[in-house]
Amino acid sequence: MFTGIIEATGEIAELRAQGGDLHLRIRTGKLDLTDLRLGDSIAVNGACLTVVALPGDGFSADVSRETLALTSLGGMRPGDRVNLEKALTLDARLGGHLVSGHVDGLGVVVERRDDARSVHFTIEVPAELARYVARKGSIAVDGISLTVNAVDGRCCELNIVPHTLKETIMASYSIGQQVNLEVDLVARYLERLLLGDRAAEAGGGNMLDLLARTGFLPE
Fold first, then answer.
1. Which domains does the chain have, with CATH numbers?
2. What's the whole-model pTM score?
3. Which of 18, 39, 74, 114 could pair covalently with 23 via S-S, beta carbons 3.0-4.6 A apart?
4. Mean pLDDT (10-residue bins), the chain, 219 residues
């Protein structure tokens, strides 16, 4: 588990295809590695990766095909910067929100504009994730815990303060850029809970099916 509070930005040092997936080496910059051990977890742009080597200036991890399919990691190049956060410890403050490190899908930056000293971003989320994004709710964008200012269909609006721009990779975002998204854990589990016994059926149904069956949406 993570909090979505980025501890440092790192740099992709090497990407190497290996057995159908990807081996990744990252230089971690100012991230404190003194308490890091093989097998520990680090969120890289919001994707939870397992440390398989500690070369001294950072760490290495293997990226599965599932992670490559759901995240932007496979499209990165050496020199690209990434957000880094070590796994949450039980004595740490939860400054953001509970983040699992399991990316749900890719969003796209569709608008960027200055708003006083902050920057306003609009992110288009995949259609299948839109129902989990709510005004004043939480979302993780490239591992950053953020509050949703507004929603309009598939788009959510975010206001990023100067500190976050300085301490993460968001200052470099441009129109059309893909970003890793993780929706709020509570929203996902609540949907599953509301399905009741239907959740145990083959296919499991979904919330839209439930709303249609109960008359809130046309069948």
1. 8-86 (2.40.30.20), 110-183 (2.40.30.20), 185-219 (no CATH)
2. 0.88
3. 18
4. 95 93 96 95 98 96 95 96 94 85 97 96 96 95 97 97 97 98 88 76 59 51
